[in-house]
Amino acid sequence: MRNLTVIGGNGKTGRRVIQRLTARAIPVRSVSRTSPVPFDWATPATWAPAVRGSDALYITYHPDLAFPGAAEAIRGVADAAVAEGVRRLVLLSGRGEEEAVVSEQGVIESGAEWTVVRGSWFNQNFSEGALAEPVQAGVIALPAGDQVEPFLDAEDIADVVVKVLTEDGHHGRAYDLTGPRPLSIADVAAEISQAAGREVRYIPVSPEEYSATLIGYGMPKEEAVLLTALFTKILDGRNARPTTTVQDLLGRPARDFTTFAREAFSA
Questions:
Q1: Which parts of the chain register pLDDT below 50?
Q2: SS3 track for the chain
């Protein structure tokens, strides 16, 4: 693969993928609404020009593949990419999300070489996403109860994505990625507290309370309700069991949450 394009190059995984490819002197470009050749999920006319000239494409969708309209948009981008001669498509999806599986079909049925990378909840959601500010304030308030999740590091996702973008042998595969061990949100709060040298508390809240919090941060009501429903769904225990896929693909253990917390929160 000579020329690679990343949709969402400013995101948690896209940024890391670009850093790795650039370090290996592999030509790569990031496309977004503000890139020189713009890409906008809401504007289909931008899709083909943005991917033109690419051999492989990494697709990330915001806010989530489970959201309404995602399946149609993913299929449209995949079709546009194949029409422009893109030979390999790698899609970031969500583990345990039935609606995301529907969105994956647009890539699977595109006619290109395809790989789907399904991630569990990212470690970096606590340091770079919507939860970063509350964590800094000492509180993690989520509708998660005492369920556990094998939190996954974005560094591992990026390493896997670069591998499947640049190497053969991954066509037709869907990889479920997780971290090495399941943790509850209370465990996460304790890990961050230990690393940061200050107390971070987990406060279980109802879905309604969490939606109201997101709306208070400026998120549109419809998106807040959908995101809350998704959080509640994937944190119902369905994803509690870790996989060994990171180890299998990369030949090393998945990064542990303790390592992430020390790097992200140490004073």
A1: none
A2: CCCEEEECCCCHHHHHHHHHHHHCCCCEEEECCCCCCCCCCCCHHHHHHHHCCCCEEEECCCCCCCCCCHHHHHHHHHHHHHHCCCCEEEEEEECCCHHHHHHHHHHHCCCCEEEEEEECCEHHHHCCCCCHHHHHCCEEEECCCCCEECCECHHHHHHHHHHHHHCCCCCCEEEEECCCCCEEHHHHHHHHHHHHCCCCEEEECCHHHHHHHHHHCCCCHHHHHHHHHHHHHHCCCCCCCCCCHHHHHHCCCCCCHHHHHHHHHCC
